[in-house]
Amino acid sequence: MQAMDQALAQMIERVRAAASDHTPLRIRGGGSKDFHGRALQGEVLDTRVLSGITSYEPSELVVTARAGTPLAELEAALADQGQCLPFEPPHFAPGATVGGMVAAGLSGPARASVGAVRDYVLGVGLINGRAEALTFGGQVMKNVAGYDVSRLMAGAWGTLGLLTEVSLKVLPVAPAEATLRFECNQADALRKLHAWGGQPLPLNASCWLHDTAVDAGVGTLYVRLRGAVAAVEAACKTMGGTRLDNAATAPDWAACRDHTLPWFAARAQQPGHALWRLSLPATAPVLTLPAAAQPLVEWHGALRWVQAPAHAGEALRAAAQAAGGNAAVFVAASADSSSASGQFDPKSAALAQIHARLKQAFDPAGIFNPGRLAADW
C-alpha cells in the first residue's frame, strides 16, 4: 500500500510539473491500443505502476482495480468466482490494462446485447490537469445523481485525466451457451438477425463474414446464445442452423473480439487499405460500399468492419450517413502496433464545443494525450 501511495504521489507531482511548463504527457498502460487515434504525442506516463485489485465482493457483483492492472489478471480473478465482464473488452495485444479498457471504451461481440463499457463503470479515481486527485462515483449502482463523470471517462482516451482506479459492475457467467452456424449471404443474415431481434431469444453475439480464403460459399453467419439452460436449448431448436462445439468456438469469438480472425489479417495483403468502422442502426440494409472485400458484420447488424483505402472515405461516410450512422478509420493504413494516424468519428460543431469545454475544465493546460482525439487538442 505504501509503495502504491508513493507511486501515486510521484504521478501527481509529474502532472503538476507538466502543467506548469505545458509539457505534453502521453498516458499509456500496456500500449495494446497504440494503433488507434490521430496521433501519439508527449512524454510517456506509464500507468502500470498502479496495479492490483483493491476490492472484490463477488456477492455484490462489484470489483475495484487500479488502472494499471492487467486486464487478463482481472478477468482471471472474476473467472475464479464464476463471473465476468459481460461486454467482452478487446485486448488486441498482451498487456492490456483496466485503465486502458475504460479509457478506450471499446466493447466486444456481446456489446449489442449486454451494453457497453460505460454501462458497467460505477466509479473512478483520476488525476486531473491541475494535479488534483479526484474520486467520482463509488461501488454501488445508486451513485448516479448529478453529472456522471465516471462514465464520461469511458472513451475519452485519457484526454480528460489520468485514471488511477476503476470500480466496475460484473455479472455471473451465463449458465448455458451455444453457437449456431448458418450458410447465407449478408442480406439473408441481416433479415434473420432482425427477425430474431424481435423475439424473446437469448441472443448474445453475432458475426457474419465472407472470408474468401476459407469460405467458397455465400458467407457464414455465427450466432452465439447465452442465458438460462432452458432458454438456450429452446432457441437452438427453433432457430435452426448447425450447432457448434463451445470449446471449439470460444477461440474464434476471442479472435473476433481481438481482430485476429483471418478476415482481419487479410488487410496486410492489401497495401494502402485501412480498417474502417461503420456504426449503424441494427436495421440498416446491406450497404453499397466502395471496397472489393465483403464487410464483417457484428452486433446484429449495427457494427460493420470494412477494409478500404483512404480515398474511399468520402463514399463510406456518405453510405453510412445515408443509413443513419457514421464511418471512421479504426486502423489507418500507415498505423502499426506503436503508431496512430487514424481518425475518430467526425463531430458536429455543437458536440465539438462541448468536448472543448470539458477539456478546458479537466485539463486546462492541455497536457493529456494531445492530438489523440482531435488535431487541436
Which terms summarize this structure?
single chain; 377 residues; alpha+beta; Uridine Diphospho-n-acetylenolpyruvylglucosamine Reductase, domain 3; 8-stranded antiparallel beta sheet; 5-stranded antiparallel beta sheet; 11 helices; 29% helix; 24% strand; globular
Structural notes for this entry:
The protein has helices at residues 2-21, 71-80, 98-104, 111-114, 149-152, 186-197, 229-239, 246-258, 262-265, 313-322, 349-362; strands at residues 25-28, 43-46, 53-57, 62-66, 83-84, 121-127, 133-137, 162-169, 171-172, 176-183, 203-209, 220-227, 242-244, 273-279, 296-298, 303-309, 326-331. It is of the alpha+beta class and 377 residues long. The protein has an eight-stranded antiparallel beta sheet with strand order 13-10-12-11-15-16-14-17, with helices on both faces. A hairpin with a 4-residue loop joins strand 3 and strand 4 (62-66). The longest helix has 20 residues, at 2-21.
The total tally of domains equals 2
Q: Describe the biggest sheet?
A: 8 strands, antiparallel
- Indicate the percent of residues in helices: 25-40%
The coarse overall form would be: globular
Q: How many E-type strands? A: 17
Highest-level CATH class of the largest domain: Alpha Beta
Mean of residue pLDDT values: 90
Structural class: alpha+beta
The name of the CATH architecture of the largest domain is: 2-Layer Sandwich
Order of strands across the main sheet = 13-10-12-11-15-16-14-17
Uncertain runs are none
Order of helices and strands: HEEEEHEHHEEHEEEHEEHEHHEEEHEH
CATH fold name of the largest domain: Uridine Diphospho-n-acetylenolpyruvylglucosamine Reductase, domain 3
Determine Rg (CA atoms, Å): 21 Å
Counting DSSP H or I runs of 4 or more residues, the number of helices is 11
